[in-house]
Specification:
Number of domains: 2
Strand content: under 5%
InterPro entries: Poly_Biosynth_Transport
Order of helices and strands: HHHHHHHHHHHHHHHHHHH
Helix content: over 70%
Structural class: mainly alpha
Subcellular location: Cell membrane
Keywords: Cell membrane, Membrane, Transmembrane, Transmembrane helix
Pfam families: Polysacc_synt_3
Protein name: Lipopolysaccharide biosynthesis protein
Largest sheet: none
């Protein structure tokens, strides 16, 4: 990366990290509060509605937001064309979903689905008006503005409007209106910052390069939606709202923190990867470095979630959600694998290698469907296991894609998993033994969970920072060697950092 791009990436990581931590904490609190104010059926209804809206969303956007970021030479005409198409498609799909909402209710055998879907259909219109402005913020790597906008909108919409409406007994509509409120605030805020031209343009020469890339992105996004939504679709139709609510909360408990963790990096690396798309060697090194660091965090974190699942569910959701515990344990690793492969997917997007990604996603959906059919008799746990096994298959296929696109050897790609797998195994075993002892005491679940989190964090810090695997150590050494400090360090934290830097760089 050039110096300017590198500095923007570092600044973006800093702001996204702050935003991620803040949003993760708020989402945990919000989930805990709403799980006590609402019943599982409310979450099941919203989960069904989100599935339908996500399906329509891939056609309503046509991948134009990614095209705005990926295209090497962006012109004013491209911006006007993107806004025109996003707005009109958003308007059209709002009307279409409103009309077809009763069919969705019939599909899921629940008449309550129709009014929920109709209200949430306005998300298409709001997102259609904001997609271009938000994509321009990402393309220009203005992550400070994005972080402030997303965090403040979450506080107002979810912690303010959502919780208040749930307390006033608005039920499922408290979840819906909170979501719509945040989308509206983000739309207004992003345009206020960018202020791009909103005069519509109907010129195919300006639309063509965007749709050439965006249409393939849309197909890929649709396939990814199908792969992630297939369990919810089948559970909602075969087992009902209650079971879907149980599955959805378990999935959210692990996917939200994991998503926020990887999102911090992914939001920065897509525009960064796009800017270096012509340099395969450099792109390959950055890709391997990125997933080495992410895997070293994600796998140990998921091992901790697996062990602490009973306390997590009891504290955050309440004892009435006990059925979610085994589902959370299985999904903790399935979601982790899903998020790891996301980086390979971003490489395909940045390199415009979308045909390979389409084939890969078709294979994944097919494998997932077959596994779900085979394991359907095992209920929710069967669906969760199917998701986990399918993610392992997806990783193998993405390794083949990275070998073809970036000429990365299979041994290189497999080796980056070692630090995370070793640390995850050590942390999982030690935390399990310690947790087994804690559960025999009279300590409350909240206190046990706090001790588990502290113990896991300490173990992860010791293993990753003081005694890192040689592959992880090489990445840490590379980062530290590029970090300069003034000769005279007056702060305690500065001196501590310098001591650590000297320790890592001078140990074999």
């Amino acid at each position: 990366m050039g110096q300017s791009l590198a500095s923007k990436a570092i600044s973006g990581l800093k702001w996204n990290t702050v935003s991620t931590i803040a949003n993760a904490v708020m989402q945990i609190g919000y989930t805990s509060i709403m799980a006590r104010l609402l019943d599982p059926e409310a979450f099941g209804l919203v989960a069904i509605s989100i599935i339908i809206l996500q399906f329509g969303g891939y056609f309503a956007n046509m991948g134009l937001n990614k095209a705005i970021i990926q295209i090497e030479e962006l012109k004013k005409e491209h911006i006007r064309a993107a806004f025109t198409s996003s707005f009109l498609l958003g308007l059209a799909f709002t009307g279409l979903v409103w009309v077809l909402a009763p069919l969705a209710a019939q599909l899921f055998k629940n008449p309550d689905v129709a009014p929920v879907v109709r209200i949430m259909s306005f998300t298409f219109l709001v997102n259609g008006m904001s997609a271009t402005a938000f994509s321009l913020l990402e393309r220009n790597m203005r992550f400070k503005a994005i972080s402030i906008l997303e965090t403040s909108s979450y506080v107002i919409s979810y912690l303010g409007i959502g919780v208040l409406l749930a307390y006033l007994d608005f039920g499922v509509y408290s979840l819906i209106l909170a979501s719509l409120s945040q989308a509206t605030i983000v739309a207004i805020g992003s345009y206020a910052i960018v202020r791009h031209n909103i005069i519509m343009l109907f010129d195919w020469s300006a639309w063509k390069p965007l749709f050439s890339y965006g249409s393939k992105m849309s197909v890929n996004s649709l396939l990814e939606w199908l792969s992630s939504s297939l369990p919810s679709i089948l559970i909602g139709r075969l087992l009902g709202d209650y079971k879907l609510g149980i599955y959805d909360r378990a999935h959210k408990l692990v996917s939200l923190p994991m998503y926020m963790l990887t999102r911090t990096i992914s939001k920065v690396i897509f525009p960064s990867f796009s800017k270096m798309q012509s340099d395969n060697e450099k792109l390959g090194k950055v890709y391997l470095s990125s997933i080495t660091l992410v895997i070293a965090l994600i796998i140990p974190a998921c091992a901790g979630i697996f062990v602490a699942a009973p306390e997590i569910v009891y504290v955050l959701l309440g004892k009435q959600w006990g059925e979610s515990v085994p589902i959370l344990q299985i999904l903790s690793f399935a979601v982790a694998l899903n998020l790891i492969t996301m980086f390979a997917g971003i490489i395909c997007d940045a390199k415009a290698a979308l045909n390979s990604k389409i084939v890969l996603n078709i294979v994944f959906v097919s494998v997932l469907g077959i596994l779900m059919y085979v394991l359907r008799g095992f209920g929710l746990q069967g669906f969760a296991v199917a998701f986990l096994v399918a993610e392992v298959v997806r990783i193998l296929f993405y390794q083949r894609a990275m070998h073809k696109i970036l000429a990365l050897k299979y041994r290189q790609q497999l080796s980056v998993y070692l630090p995370g797998l070793i640390n995850g195994a050590v942390i999982g075993v030690l935390l399990y033994l310690f947790s087994s002892f804690l559960r025999t005491t009279a300590l409350s679940p909240l206190l046990i969970l706090g001790v588990q989190m502290l113990t896991g964090a300490v173990l992860l810090a010791v293993l990753s920072l003081l005694f890192p695997h040689k592959i992880l150590k090489a990445e840490i050494q590379t980062m530290l060697s590029k970090t300069g400090l003034p000769e005279k360090i007056s702060t305690r934290s500065g001196r501590a950092f310098q001591l650590y830097k000297s320790y890592i760089l001078n140990t074999k």
